[in-house]
Amino acid sequence: MTASLPSESDLDATFERLFSVMQSERFLTSTGIGNEVSLFVQPYEIEVQDPVEKRIKALASRLSAKGLGVLCINLLELVAEFTSREDRLKRLLEKEPTFTRDKMLSTMARWTDAKEHLVPAMKAKFDAEKWDITLVYGCGSVFPFLRTHTILENLQSDMDKRPIVFFFPGEYQHREAAGSDLRLFGKLSHKGYYRAFNLDHYHL
Fold first, then answer.
1. Residue 188 belongs to some domain of the structure
2. 190 inside domain
3. How far is CA 40 from the centre of its chain?
4. What is the tally of structural domains in the chain?
5. pLDDT single digits (tens) 86-103
């Protein structure tokens, strides 16, 4: 039997809880969190992608109205931004008719490598102003050439204590002893050890 999708009221309740959590001193300072860095994952079902993204933007506006500095990063827009430099994206699109799918994906994977390109681009935005919270979304839009687990792995080594929240279309399980499991779209699994806290399990 297929589980029912979250209703509009379910999503409203989730984001109301996130609003309470994210303006709390405990969350903003990572008080009581055992991980060394302030990475958080908020999983959701891919079928409610559009309503979730709408609520992410509304959440950012509400937090900003409370006086918090909120940086929103759409991964697909960020990728388009830095691959447009030096006309890379333009040249890739010109060559698209002659490229196989695998060649296209390998080229995009190289140009968006998390360690070499994506994380430095994110870091530049973090450092541009003193943000209190960063909300990252679009994880499903950059698959398969860029995967969330590679971003988390590389962010861990170059972070301060300001919280960064990834809205992830899938499932996330974190166990101190067993490591972590990111399941994109609830199906594609990647096990590792990410020091990211599942916000579904975060309590004030």
1. no
2. no
3. 9
4. 1
5. 677 677 777 777 778 788
